[in-house]
Amino acid sequence: MNLTLFGYPKTGKTTLFNLISGARVEVHAYEDGKREPNQRTCHIPDARLDRVAALSPEKKKVPASFELIDLAGVSYGEVKNSLYLSALRKADGLVHVVRGFRNPDIPHPKGIIRPEDDIHYMEEELMITDLVSASARLEKLDKDLKKAKDPEGEKERTLLQIVRAGLEQGKPVRDLGLPAAEEKAVRSFAFLSQKPLVHMLNCDEKDIPLLESPEKILPGRKPGSPVLGFCGRIEAEIDELPEEERTTYLAEYGLKELSPARFFRELPAILGMVSFFTIGKNETRAWMIPRDAPAGQAAGAIHTDIERGFIRAEVIAWEKLVELGSLQAAKDKGAIRLEGRDYPVQDGDVIYFRFTS
Could you tell me which CATH number the domain at 292-355 has? Predict the structure, then answer.
């Protein structure tokens, strides 16, 4: 899974990258001509995994993870640039870093700090980029279908016409309400406005009391993709401190926690995903899959051979497993359910897959 940090220049993308990933990348690296994105594997903390893993302390605990990518800033109107567009299309989720802080030494490209405008501009850029892509594909389909009939091509054209009409009305692809099969088909085009999107507002120090409710810093913003807040400068300073000193400084600034904790809590809902756990011979592991994914798909997240040879899933909710103390105790109590390939995996399920090799 790939999450990509992107946004206009000087918004605090690399600062946020460091906070989330624990890296120590030089914040001014891109000013020195470095254009390669920063990348780091991030493990997702999960208290449920901790408790399930504690039942088998001799086994390795493996949290779910994702690749965090930090792109260089993009100028207004340049998202459609081929190199930048290619990087965004590879992402499974987009994290738009928005400037809300004031600093006379770092002038805003438009001369005024209005984060709600920058959010609007960026969402519009993503939709315009998708509109250009959909229109280009439709133009090619029209030419091809005039030469020869193609039922699949006709279906694709009808679907893309719906997408184009929605984009022309200012609706991102994710909000078009497409049926599941059509939504899956559209996904192959890697439309940017179909991807999960969260805006991370880099707040001014005076707005720290509003970090838990960043929408209050954005008067007049229309409902849309979720917004989370962080105060990059202050949090970066606190993050450099020894662990034992952080609590004191957090309290001094009125912060309950650093932003990564909030980010990781909200991440599954933003991505539309759930977690399930497996207890193997040597490890207890967390996996992330799309919400409502069937057991067969969950098996495939582990290995395609398990999905191909799927027989059944042995399932128990993590709370019930912890209550009973072990998988053997759960079996003895008859607490483990047998589910088929189409069972919709629930958040927090502990699953053992039976399959033929």
Answer: 3.10.20.30
Write the pLDDT tens digit of every residue in 145-185. 999 989 999 999 999 999 999 999 999 999 999 998 999 99
Cβ atoms of 211 and 231 within 8 Å: the answer is yes
Q: Which residue has the tokens 């493996």?
A: 62
| Cβ atoms of residues 343 and 294 within 8 Å | yes
Asked if residues 277 and 302 have their Cβ atoms less than 8 Å apart, the reply is no
Q: Is 253 exposed, middle or buried (0-12, 13-18, 19+ CB in 10 A)?
A: middle
| CA dist., res. 10 & res. 109, Å (int) | 9
As a whole number of angstroms, the distance between CA 307 and CA 300 comes to 5
284-319 pLDDT tens trace: 999 999 999 999 999 999 999 999 999 999 999 999
Fold for 2-45+64-109+196-270, please state it: Rossmann fold (3.40.50)
